[in-house]
Structures are given as C-alpha cells and as structure tokens.
Amino acid sequence: MSVAPESYQHSYSGFARSLHWIVALLVLTIIPVGLVMGQIENAPFNLYNFHKSLGVSILVLMTVRLIYRLLHGAPPETNIPAFYRFAGAATHWALYVLLFLTPISGAIANMYYGAATPFFGLFEIQPFVEKNEDLSNFIFARHKLLGFAVGALAIMHIGAALFHYFIRKDGVLQRMLPGA
Ligand code: HEM
Ligand code: HEM
Description:
Elements: H1 14-39, H2 45-72, H3 82-112, E1 117-119, E2 123-125, H4 133-168
Antiparallel strand pairs: 1-2
C-alpha cells in the first residue's frame, strides 16, 4: 500500500526535535572520540575529558528528554504498517535505555578507577566510591560494549530514516525535521 506523505501532518514539537538533534550530534561525536582515545597509546588527557564531558551532557539531556517524552508522548502516526511501527518503537526505546546505561556505566567505572568526572573544565565531580581497579576494568569492558551497541543501533536508525525518506517516501523523516 502506498502511503501519502500528507498523512503525516503530525511532527515532533520544536523542543523534542531540538533535543533529538543535539543528542544525535553529541552521540555521533562521543563514539569516534571514544574509539580514537582507545586506539592511540597515551591519548591526550583532554580527549578523555572531552569524552567524559560529552557523556555527562548526554545523560543530563536524556533525563530531560525521557521526562518530556513520558509526559507528552510521540505525535500520532496514521497509516504506517504495524511491522515498521514496531521496529521503530523497539529501536527508539532501546536507544533511550542505552543512552542511560552507557554514560552511567562510564561514570561509575571512572569513579572506581579513582578519576574525577569533568564537565568541560567548568567543574568536576569527585569520585565518591572507594578506588577498585578490578571493578573499574570490569565495568569499563561493559561500558565499551554498550558504546558499540549505541553505535550499531544509531547506524540502523539512520539507515531506517533514509529508507523511509528515499524508498517508502512516507513522510516519517519529516516528523523530525525543522519547520515540519
Ligand atoms: C552515551 C555516552 C557514552 C558513549 C556512547 C561512550 C562510548 C564509549 C566507547 C565506544 C568507548 C570504547 C573506546 C575503545 O576502547 O575503543 C568508551 C570508552 C571510555 N569511556 Fe565512554 N561513552 C559514553 C559516556 C562516558 C562517560 C559519561 C564516561 C565517564 C564519565 C566515559 C568514560 C570512558 C572512558 C574513561 C573510556 C576508556 C576506557 C578504557 O580505555 O578502559 N564514557 N566509551
Ligand atoms: C542523521 C541522523 C538521524 C536521523 C535522520 C534521525 C531521524 C529520526 C526520525 C525521523 C525520528 C522520528 C521517527 C518517528 O517519527 O517515529 C527519530 C527519532 C528518534 N531518534 Fe533519530 N535520527 C538521527 C540520529 C539519531 C541518533 C544519533 C540518535 C541517538 C543515538 C537518535 C535517536 C532517536 C530516538 C531515541 C528517537 C525516538 C524519539 C522519540 O520518540 O522520543 N537519532 N530520529
């Protein structure tokens, strides 16, 4: 069944769209930064601080975003096949969950490592747990896997957005675009 874009007159609010694109930009920055700092030996301290500060920003923005989303819901969809609706909802909620678990695991592992959590040089949160390097390594290993999972889901998500735009031409991407 072909679906007319006109059936998508409902787009996300300006606030929801702004949060989506800011978080998207942060996520698409933090992963390469994480990968680079993991690859180069003795990566500059600042790169780690940048990664951690981006992670704290994502955690704070996702908290605002989740509350807003639970209060306001998503704009109604008409005429979208149940399979696509389910696949979209599953990916979106998995991203929500991962965008909490990943920064939280990073921050906890970082504290057990005995390091402070910086925020762009403005302030830093001192560790409030006793240093435990074994536990830190254990949690960091999970943190990396979670980070890779965020990357994989983000790629799928972007692929799906392009599929909706170029192949199905069903107006789904426009729900998240400015001026929609
Ligand atoms: C959504 C948020 C985050 C994402 C997607 C993310 C992603 C990643 C990824 C993919 C790596 C692996 C790099 C590699 O070794 O190849 C990594 C490592 C790391 N992350 Fe994060 N991260 C996030 C938040 C945080 C936060 C909030 C902190 C600390 C406050 C943090 C601290 C670290 C540290 C210190 C490493 C290096 C660990 C090691 O080499 O053992 N991350 N992160
Ligand atoms: C070029 C990049 C991106 C495009 C084109 C894009 C596009 C979209 C679109 C069109 C929607 C709305 C889908 C619908 O109407 O049901 C959406 C929702 C969403 N996107 Fe993205 N996105 C991008 C990047 C990202 C990234 C990097 C993340 C995070 C890792 C992300 C996380 C989400 C989440 C969690 C939702 C669900 C929003 C909600 O219902 O509250 N997006 N995206």
